[in-house]
Design goal:
Blueprint lengths: L2 E8 L4 E8 L3 E5 L6 H9 L6 E6 L2 E5 L4 E2 L7 E4 L11 H8 L8 H7 L15 H14 L4 E5 L7 H14 L6 E6 L2 H7 L2 E6 L2 E7 H6 L4 H6 L4 E4 L1 E3 L2 E4 L4 E4 L7 E4 L13 E4 L1 E8 L2 E7 L8 E6 H7 L4 E4 L5 E3 L1
Parallel strand pairs: 3-9, 3-10, 7-8, 8-9
Antiparallel strand pairs: 1-2, 1-4, 4-5, 5-6, 10-11, 12-16, 13-14, 14-15, 16-22, 17-21, 18-19, 19-20
Helix pairs in contact: 2-3, 2-4
Amino acid sequence: MSLEIKIKKNYGEFKLNIEYKGESRRIGILGASGSGKSLTLKTISGIERPDEGFVKIDGRVLFDSNNNVNITPQKRKTGYMFQSLALFDNMSVEQNIKAGIGRNADITAQEIMERFGLSNIAGRRPHELSQGQKQRTALARILASEPSVILLDEPFSSLDFHIRDEMQESLISMLENFDGTVITVSHSLEEIYALSDELIVIDNGNVCAVGITEDIFNSPPDSISAVLTGCENIAHAEYMDGKIYIPDWGIELSSPNKDVSHVALRARSFYYDERGGMLCLFVKEPNIKKTPFGCTVYFKPSEKASEKMCIKISSSEMRYNGIPDRIYVDERDFIMLK
């Protein structure tokens, strides 16, 4: 399954400019609120019409401004799961699912309900369902329409925190046998990491990174991607004579990489004791913020530092080690950003 999209749309102060081409069956779109994630899904589904460009799925043209092609949402074979789930309040579970079944479908509502464990609540209406049951019903209705692409818009945003992991695992399981493409939009790192193999990072309406999800999380290519993938420490860097200088932190790194504008370090990439040639950072002027399962420590890493870094310490580490007066970092854990 291939997806090719190159579209532009002017919303006044906000401009959407998205370009992507790939064959992954599980795609994630990561971005901050208001970055254009949901608008991108809507242009793929046909809910929004771009000003120019094209959208193709498996070579099938869904939209092409140059050739005046704009397939209606009903004929695009895309299933869209809205944040609100958009179930019909006046219909039962079974009726909601039947509403999604096409005239020539090879599957019945009963078969779908059995697959999704909904047979025992077939007669209930949405207000009588738990959030998890509503989500299963919404996904079942989408799959009943036999789509080529499923679009998930913040699929767990309406769920309470304590059931998100359970529903995430349930959703992955329900989609295991779906051979089409699933595109998930979220600003949640856990959701995107679990539900995508390839990642598109969007900032202010533009694509700033595309790649294998795990690779972008491990080595984000730029400072925007680093921030959006949860990298807590980012600072301006300067290359000079085989070293990377980080003025804000008052430290320097040995590196042949001349094409660096910033460096990043994740808050858990540290050790309490030295392990052969590691960089020593002092924990000066610490400020401690308690978290449910530990704490975050903000500190200046050197006498010359003008800005603070942070580390995250778990409750068990706190019990055994407390707040250190110095930490050690492997220079290879610093992420060089262009």
